[in-house]
Each structure stands twice: as C-alpha cells, then as structure tokens.
Amino acid sequence: MNQAPVTEVLFFASLREAMQIGNLKLTLTKPVEVKDLILMIAGQSALFAAALTERELLVAINEQLASQQSMVQPGDTIALFPPVTGG
C-alpha cells in the first residue's frame, strides 16, 4: 500500500520563536491552498493559531516565493516566514 508523500512545513525567524518549533510534517491527501494549509496548522493549538493568524506571512513552496492562494501538492516543502525588513 502506497503512503501519501509527507509535506514539510518550515517556520523561520520570529514565527519559529512564536510557534516554539522549527517544522511540522503533514500528510496531505490532495492539493490545498496555502491559506487553507495555514488554517489547518492554526487549528492544531492555540499557540499555533496566535502565531499564524496575528501576522503577515511570506510563503515559499519548494524554495519559490508563492502566495496564500498558491496550491500545495502532497510532498511539497513549504516555508513560512515574517516579512523581512531592512535596517
């Protein structure tokens, strides 16, 4: 029996600190939009919900910048990070 590929979600910078983890591994059975994936993760705990819903997030799918409406395929690697500011 084939298992669905594992989708890895990586968290960076202040988002990583707020969530207190660096990554999550999920099993997706079908493609989902980034915004729905974020909601799925936020639903796992109050800590995740606060970290993911109270800030603007940048997204990369397989190391390519993407939008909240981009589709995540099972097995993709997703990176979530706060906007970078210069200084």
Automatic annotation (TrEMBL):
SUPFAM superfamilies reported for this sequence: MoaD/ThiS
CDD domains registered for this protein in UniProt: Ubl_MoaD (cd00754)
Taxonomy, superkingdom: Bacteria
Pfam families reported in the protein's UniProt record: ThiS
Gene3D superfamilies reported for this sequence: 3.10.20.30
Cross-referenced InterPro entries: Beta-grasp_dom_sf, Mopterin_synth/thiamin_S_b, ThiS/MoaD-like
Residues annotated as transmembrane: none
Annotated protein name in UniProt: MoaD/ThiS family protein
